[in-house]
Amino acid sequence: MKKTVINRLFSILLYVAFFGLWSCNSDSGTDTKPETISLSADTNKIDFQTKGNAAAIKVTTNATAWTVTTSDTSWIQLSQLSGGTGTTTFNITASENIGTVTRTAVITISSNQTASVQIAVSQVGVAPVTTLYPNYNTNPIAADATGMASNAVELAAKIKLGWNIGNTLEATGGETNWGNPKVSKELIDLVKANGFNAIRIPCSWDQNLVSSTTGQISTEWMNRVKEVVQYCVDNDMYVIVNIHWDGGWLENNCTEEKKEANNAKQKAFWEQIATNFRDFDEHLLFASANEPNVDNAAQMAVLTSYHQTFIDAVRSTGGKNAFRTLIVQGPSTDIEKTNKLMTALPTDKVANRMMAEIHFYPYQFSLMTKDESWGKMFYYWGAGNHSTTDTDHNPTWGEEADLDKFFLSMKTQFVDKGIPVVLGEFGAIRRDLTGDALALHLKSRADYLKNVVKKARANGLLPFYWDAGFMGVNTMTLFNRTNNTIYDAQALTALQDGLK
Fold this sequence. Notes:
- This protein is of the alpha/beta class.
- It has two domains: 39-123, Sandwich (Immunoglobulin-like), CATH 2.60.40.10; 141-497, TIM Barrel (Alpha-Beta Barrel).
- It has helices at residues 2-28, 152-158, 185-193, 219-234, 256-276, 297-316, 335-341, 363-366, 400-413, 435-458, 489-497, and strands at 39-41, 45-48, 53-61, 66-70, 76-78, 82-83, 86-94, 103-111, 114-123, 141-143, 162-164, 198-201, 209-211, 216-217, 238-242, 284-287, 318-319, 326-329, 354-360, 421-426, 461-465, 479-480, 485-486.
- The strands form six sheets. Strands 11-12-15-16-18-19-20-21 form an eight-stranded parallel barrel.
């Protein structure tokens, strides 16, 4: 009896112990599944229009942290690059697509706690340039890298000092219509012998058409420009051919109203120029324009479209043009405007073959020919060159400190990013003064020219002196083109000293 009771009590105790252990394990939650980490966006595709625009992306996650990246930062900007748990909204902004091709990119949202999310982004280009003119790219050829080994930076290192054949091949009415003789091989030889290894040839084309309706450039004119280019290349000189003022059809019309027609003309002209000059090696560079009048972002967008048409037209012709270095001008080729408005260059399917161009004329010293109510001419320039007797004509800006500031801004904006800058024009007129005033003015002018060359090169800018060929006061002429002799030895020596 007693043994039976004991056995029953033992059984009960075992039951209670087992039940209690099971109950404890059940309550501990050791078999509860962990929370699933998720990451999602409210869209997986964005289609932007041509004009710059933005889209909002909503990210939802229970991950502790995530990051977002884009495969192309050249035209896409992200308002934030990371986030955390919960719902977060950030913006994707696209700049205007001024090309004709649709461009694409991928936005990736990632977390190390779960799978990433991708968003496909596309943006259509502008409609192809209107066909106001025939297609002049009638015989494109395969790309030819022969003689085109140097990229823009390597080419810039070879260009030491440049000279402009001003007021000649761009002259309204013909090459000699502004008083200069036709460019001769002897003139180019003289320029080369005096320290210049590059020539900029300002050119007109619109006045040299067979027909304004078709936009066809005269073969005779095309051959004449090629002849002058050959003079330069035969001297192992680098040479820039541009479309200069040319009646102002592009320069004075960076507007939405003229955009379509001017892009059509730009395309027609550069298809012809590029095709005819296609066999020249890297010694030849093309420049889209000269001093396009641009004052604001809207006009800059139009100018950028003109540059894009230029690049696309040249590249489309193939041959050595597939690798040729191309030059695009800043707004008004003004350094301050370029620094403010030229925030992005047109696109080029060939990497590292582009240069930017600016000009530098501190007006009151370089060009101004009479005193005005708002300011006076500057006869003098530079530390130690201020007059003690003619203080009214001492400079108040544009001296050494401004040279440093302006040229450094171009170095920072372009040169440091692998985009050389052409200082396509600079100079200072020789004024009609006498006695001590003239002597101090000429010393100032020489110091100015030396400093421009020296500081331009120190900042990676390629200096090209402007020479219009006229002799006398208020001119910048270095060479007498009628007899191919040196006209202004002091100014020439100053430029040469800038190279030392």
